[in-house]
Design a protein that fits this description.
Elements: H1 2-10, H2 13-30, H3 32-35, H4 37-44, H5 48-76, H6 78-99, H7 103-117, H8 120-128, H9 133-144, H10 148-164, H11 166-176, H12 178-187, H13 200-204, H14 210-241, H15 245-273, H16 275-295, H17 300-328, H18 333-345, H19 350-362, H20 366-393
Amino acid sequence: MAGFRTFLKAGHSPTLLAAFIYFTYCCGVWVTNGAMAPFIKESLALSPAQVGLMLSIPIFAGALMRFPLGVLAQYIGRKNATLVEMGGIAIALLYGYFFVDTFNDLLAMGVLLGIAGASFGVALSLGSGSFPARYKGLAMGLVGAGNVGTSLSALLAPQLAQAYGWKAVYGFAALGLLVPVLVMIFIAREPEDVDRHAGLREHAACLFEKDGWAFSLIYAITFGGFIGLTTFLPSYYNDQFGVSKVQAGQLTMLAAFMGAALRIFGGWISDHWGGINTLTAVLVIISVSLLACGLSGGSLVLTTLLLMLCFAALGAGNGALFQLVPLRWPLSTAVAGSMIGEIGALGGGLVPNAMGLSRQHTGTYFWGFALFAVLALLVLLMMRSMQIRWTRTWAEKGGRARVG
């Protein structure tokens, strides 16, 4: 506890809190359509493939918007960029409340919800910017725990939709936006660290390297799997097990909370055990648990336990990956992390599409689970083949930081 107080005193903790609240809210809004998918599907009579497409659009849009928001933050400041983004979120939510009536409207709404998904890089940079280098990892981990917003959305949105109708949830979310906006205005301050104006060439530089693509593919499994499954699970629980729409959200909340909570643990254990070792265990657990989920479709309890295990691994994997990023790119950590985050997040859009198509064309969700399990194994094989060079050049055995 004394060590944590020392950490808080080392930087500007009100800005850290503001960044956490902002990121938590944005994560919750980003997956709103997923949390309400059973209501939307029933209201508009959507097919499984249409549900999958509807849920993938916000994920794709959010990933693609991360880079433009990061560039904007470099020119107007990170605090101001969050306020501009939240203005865009307000427009998106008001559009959803007043104008969404058809499937095509939903797709347009999904693009607008992607504005909320762009918050990752700016939130982490804002929260950690006022802390010295030795504490930036912990600061980023604490802000990153704002992923818990996905579990709050899964818990609250179905209950509000049940009581007031699913379109009203957009209105409630718009009112809730006042909290992060006021917090950001009154307690956050622009960090003192220098945020260089990195151009497109510098941002994309890591993707001209094999390691950049390797890290992006790993992140497509860990974070992509986290956000993709969080978005799809309410529909899965409601359709596969016939639970109520509200219960489907509550069960999703259990899994999503595990993923958010274990992110910090993943970074901590990677510091001690090594990021490569941690990711090896993570990818094995993800693959096995997803395959088991596909085979246990008759048991609600077993499926829920397996999904909680899977999400715990996904969350730990997110923390482990970003333990390795500053080791590989010590002089351009923020730029590399931003680009890896953007490309990797695109993987999340694969999950709801694969699940919807599997259900529509085969009558079962098994092949959606199996596809993602196989992809996790392939990424594991890729990482294990590349880690031999990694541990000879920029990391100690297992992926720990080199001493001296």
